[in-house]
Structure formats: C-alpha cells, structure tokens
Give the backbone structure.
Amino acid sequence: MDTTARTAPETLEMQQEAYVRKHYRYNFASCLIDGFGWPLGSSFISASTILPLMVLHLTPSKFWVGLIAAIGSAGFFLPGIFIAHYIERLPILRKFVLWVALLERLPILLMGPLILLLARQPVLLLIAFFVCWTWHSVSMGFNSPSYFGLISKVIPHDRRGRLYGVSGAVGGLLGIAGAAITENILDRYDFPAGFALCFGIAFVILTVSVIPLGYVREPYATATREKQTLKEYLRLMPGLLKSHPDFTRYLVSQLLYAMAGISPAAFFTTFAKEHLGASNQEVARFTAVIMATGIIANPFWGYMGDRRGNRRVVLIGSLCSLTAPLLAMVTPSVEIFYLVFVLSSAGMSGAGLGHFNLVMEFAPPREVATFIALSSLSVAPIRFIMPLVGGELVDRAGYLPIFIFSAIACLAATVLLLRVREPRASAG
C-alpha cells in the first residue's frame, strides 16, 4: 500500500520546522530590531500623550482626542479580513510585509512639513492630520495578518513571548530616551516646530528599523489557501467559529475588553492636564513612564506567556486595565497620577502581547492570517465607536462616567476570560 501521500506532508512539515530552528537566531535578531524600533519611534508621536497634546493646540474639543484612538483602533483592526485570504495564498510573506510597512510610514513623513505649512490654519491642519493618521492606521491594519503570519512561520511558538518581551524591554528603555528627547524638543520649540521635528525623527527610526523584516529567512509555505473570492471566503467564517468554541468565547471576552476603550489612555493625559495642572513637559514624562513600565512588564509577560500560557498574560493584563481608571478617579496630584500610566501601560502591554500570541496558538498553522483578521474584525467597530462616545461624554458630563464604564467593561471581560481554556492545554 502506497503511503507517500500520507507521509509527504508530515515530512515537509518536519523539514520546515528544522529550517526554522536552524535560522532561529538570525530571524530572532531581525524581528527584534523591528520590535524595539517600533516603541522607540512611536515615543516621539505617542498616540496616548504627544498626539492628544498636539490636537489640543488645534481644538479644545475632546471628541477629536477620542478620534485619535478611534481611527487608530479601527484602522488597525478592521481591514485585515479583506486581505487575509490573499495573504494565505502567498508562499512567502516577507516582501509583502516590508512594502506595506514602508507605505505605513509615508504619512508620518508628510506630517512634518504639513504642520509647519498649516500651523496658522488649525482646521486645515486638523483635517490633514486625521487624513494622515487614517492612512497610517489603515496601512497597519492591512499589514497585521501578514506580519503575524510571518512571525508564526519564523519564530517557534515557545519563543514568541521571549521575542516580544525582550523587544518590549529594549524598546521601552530606548523609548525613555526618546521621551526625554521629545520633552526637550517640545520645551525648546513647542508648537508647531517641536511637533514637526518629532514626526521627522519618528519617520527615520521607524523606517530604518523595519527593513530587517524584509530579509528574514522564511521557509516556503508547505501548502497555501486555494484561490477564492472574498465572498466565498467570508462564507466560511461562521463555520470556523462554530468549530473553535474556545476561540469564539475568547473573541467575546475581547469585545467586552474593547468596550473599555471608552476611556483610552489619551483621556488620562487630557484629564491630568486639565484637572491636575500637568505641563507639556510632564505629559512627555508620562510617555517615559509608559516606556519604563514596558521595560519591566514586557519581559515578565513574555516569560509568563512562554512558560505558563498566554491566556494568563491576557487575564492579568485585563486586571491592570481594570485598576487604572479606578485609580484615576481618586488620584489627587500629578505625582501620584504616574501610577495610572504604569497600570495602563502594563495592562495594554500584557493584553497586546498575550492577545496576538494567543490567537496564533488558537489558529491552525495555515490559517493564522484568518484567525488574526477575525480577532481584529470582532473588536474593530467597538474600538472605533467607544473613544468617540467617550470624547462626547467628557465634553458633556466629565471624566467620571467613562472611567466607571471602562472599569466595568474590563471586569466583565476578565470574568468571561476565565471560561476560556488555554489552547496548549487543549492541544495536550
């Protein structure tokens, strides 16, 4: 009896695994450069601190501050479902990842001269900023399934926590330096020159650090998805969710967690500035605190994820996110308010690091892009709407209602997450 048809796929998978292990150190280093370059470059244009501060130079309305988080979330989480079926047909992902990543960075480059040209026309500059921010965020969303598909191919599952833990720690350390430089830039130049310079520096760092991703040693996919129309592909999604009940429960818990986005970290910044008298320089220090927290939290989350499972990382991260708005409501001074950013940063890094690693473990190897896209799509509308609702509520009723709602949403997500089994345990 001929067994070649049965054994060939297993042999190919073994060869692929051997290839990944052989080139693991090189690929780890390549991904690591991108991993710490991202937080360093982003520290100059932090969506939690620097961008809200710039928007407040253009308008007093908190709706626009909320729109930063809304567009950032929707742009990142929504587009993936429209590209995942194409990505799963590609035998090699690195070129796609690199070119789309470069496209992400173009609007950051454009923002520098736009700020200088339109500084005296706040309405036009506000529109230009949100056009560029949308371009950047949507490009990230199109790249997300391919990026995580690439990571799942070149980094073994029990090393991904280490990758993001080390890159988060190094990136946090470099980000503190970036935040200190940002503080000096804004102190010396303020608006508009200071913000234009920050965008220029961010562009250079983010562009240089992403290039190694295009040169990882990636094995050819042993099998790819057959060609389908988008309509045919989307028809498969209900059946996929029914066949993976733990993944489905996890998505519902993340939908609840996304509702906590009614109070994004940007509102912590505006609250501290308006109610506690935080200066521009203190806002830049908030960025440093976020980065410093990452130095400690990311290796901890990475170690826990590799050794104890990523479900636990997401769970504890959710508890940190639950505590942050509760503390914000009762904090009497800027000095103590730094703890709010510590908890918020720890929660976001834990939920973020654990989330994508967990989704990659839920997914069969050839369907990582689909699972990433589904996890993103499930929360995209909520992540877009909630910051806008939050901004409107702040303008009408103050910060207290959104802080309370955020804490309740985190609590509900945590309770449901307790019913989700660790995928490694399920596989065992």
Q: What stands out?
A: The chain has one domain: 13-427. The domain at 13-427 is CATH 1.20.1250.20 (Growth Hormone; Chain: A;). The longest helix spans residues 122-154. The chain has 19 helices and no strands.
